[in-house]
Amino acid sequence: MQTELNTTSIFVTVVEAGSFSNAAEQLHLTRSAVSKSIARLEERLGVTLFKRTTRTLSLTTEGALFYEHSHRALAEIHTAESLLDQGKINATGLLRISAPVLFGQLYVAPLMVELAQQHPDLQIELSLNDRTIDLVEDGFDLAIRIGTLPDSHHLVARKLGDHRMLLCATPQYLERSSALHQLDDLQQHTTIAYPYSGQQPKWHLQDEHKQSYTIKPQAKLMLNDMQAIKNTVLSHHGIAWLPDWLVHHELQQGTLIQVLANFSSVDFPIHVLWPTLPFMPLKTRLAIDQLVEKLPQQLYA
Length: 301
Fold this sequence. Notes:
Elements: H1 2-17, H2 20-27, H3 31-45, E1 50-52, E2 57-59, H4 61-86, E3 93-99, H5 101-118, E4 122-128, H6 135-138, E5 142-146, E6 155-163, E7 165-169, H7 171-175, E8 191-193, E9 203-206, E10 212-215, E11 221-222, H8 226-234, E12 239-243, H9 244-253, E13 257-258, E14 268-275, H10 282-299
């Protein structure tokens, strides 16, 4: 690989110098060494790169195409070397990220804003949507997913943390409502649910002994937005099953209470995913590093 890179560099120098002799002088090589290097390159590529006469040297069509891409590639290498010499790592280009709406607003967006401020030449597009997107078909570099991941040979995943769903209500609601000691008691309460495809999903709970329970209380209200559900609960209108990362401040402050506290959901993993690639672009690696380093700290604050 090093020999091929050196040969390509000699080829670019010949084109830009205008002759083998001028290139040899710039490279501190003999004209014969330069000529042999170009001959080896042409043999490896299986094409003729130059039209040679006794007085002129010009590129063939294949040579012009190879020069265009080689010149660009060598320029990128020189830029990378210069940045490393300066100790400066600056991501560039457009980075497209998909994340669930509310989780993205609260946790992903602030971290990506911070990353964009650190890299002025980086443009970040954060798409907030609760539907499952296809990273490759939809052209995303990264996606945040909550829940169990399906098997895929086309994606790479890194775990960022876990969260649980908790049954929550306000003290004011509980004061004026009937007793709540067992799961069956939920049937006597106003429950607020998040619908999925027009249906109320079941609540999957476990007790402190890891015994699993599946319940489907008859919801009095169904709202397709977690923040709206939380706001409705905070207005003393009922009990809801909410993610711990959404309510931990209110639980600490006492404006919300975890009801049936010996029951919670199983752990739901939170992952960042990206397409399988021969190499990882710098912008993608920096975004993953930002999420891995800082998101768990915020999640478990």
